[in-house]
Amino acid sequence: MIGTGVLKGMAVTLRNFAGSYFDKDRLITVQYPEERSPLPENYRNFPFLVYDGNDPQAGLRCVACQICEKECPPQCIYIIKSKDKKPDYVGKPQFYPAVFDIDISVCMSCQICVEVCPFEAIKMDKDFELSQRERFDHLLLRREQLSKSNDYYHKIHPVEAAAVDKNLADAAAAAEAKKKAAAEAAAKAAAAKAAAAQAPTTVASPESATGSTSAPGQTPPETTKPQS
Ligand code: SF4
Ligand code: SF4
């Protein structure tokens, strides 16, 4: 019958309208910005740089390897590598990005920069309230604006951040074990070399002086005494 579809549609609308007064799941509108729907774990917007510890610059994981800059499809990352090294948050000297900009007017949120980073240094943010009056400069995010703590990362992506922390801890433990094994092997080799250097040198025995061919440590062959 003509119009059945319209009536069915109206019935669905009426059911949801009336149900929204009793069932919270049917109420899909929130009064933004006073109310906000929680974002799912995998929601992503634009990238940010993760730092460990309390100092955004000392703790920056990024070592300015520029892989993400090369791989970014629309080429919206701009990095200048430092000339010097600075201690990271555990005191290890590292290069760092003297400049790290992302043009979010160009970024297409593809996450490729995150996938290719070998240092877990760049992750996707959930912040979407980034509108600006100026179209160009104000949408170019600088290193200082991009740097956010690991605690913030845990807050927005708790499952993913916990997995990343575990991977980093496992990698650090494996590197430490490898270093320890190498140090033990080097110590053993040094001890063996020292022992070899201290071993007594062969002293010429009376037998060898008389032409005996017995090797050092070997019992010389018995000689037959002349019969009297
Ligand atoms: S999310 Fe994609 S487009 Fe945006 S900076 Fe990363 S690689 Fe480039
Ligand atoms: S964010 Fe990662 S891939 Fe990009 S420069 Fe820094 S360390 Fe390299």
What does this structure look like?
With 228 residues, the protein is an alpha+beta fold. It is built from seven helices and eight strands. The strands form three sheets. The protein has a three-stranded mixed β-sheet with strand order 6-1-8. Strands 2-5-7 form a three-stranded antiparallel β-sheet. Strands 3-4 form a two-stranded antiparallel ribbon. α5 crosses α6 (158-198). The longest helix has 41 residues, at 158-198. One iron/sulfur cluster binds next to α3.
Listing every helix as H and every strand as E from the N terminus to the C terminus, the arrangement reads HEHEEEEHEEHEHHH
Task: Report the mean per-residue pLDDT as an integer.
Answer: 86
CATH class of the domain at 47-171, named Alpha Beta
Sheet having the most strands? 3 strands, mixed
Terminal Cα span: 142 Å
Poorly predicted runs are: 207-228
Radius of gyration, taken over Cα atoms and rounded to an integer in Å: 36 Å
Assign the CATH architecture of the domain at 47-171.
Answer: 2-Layer Sandwich
Strand content: 5-15%
Strand order of the largest sheet: 6-1-8
Structural class designation: alpha+beta
User: What is the fold named in CATH at topology level of the domain at 47-171?
Assistant: Alpha-Beta Plaits
Number-wise, the strands total 8
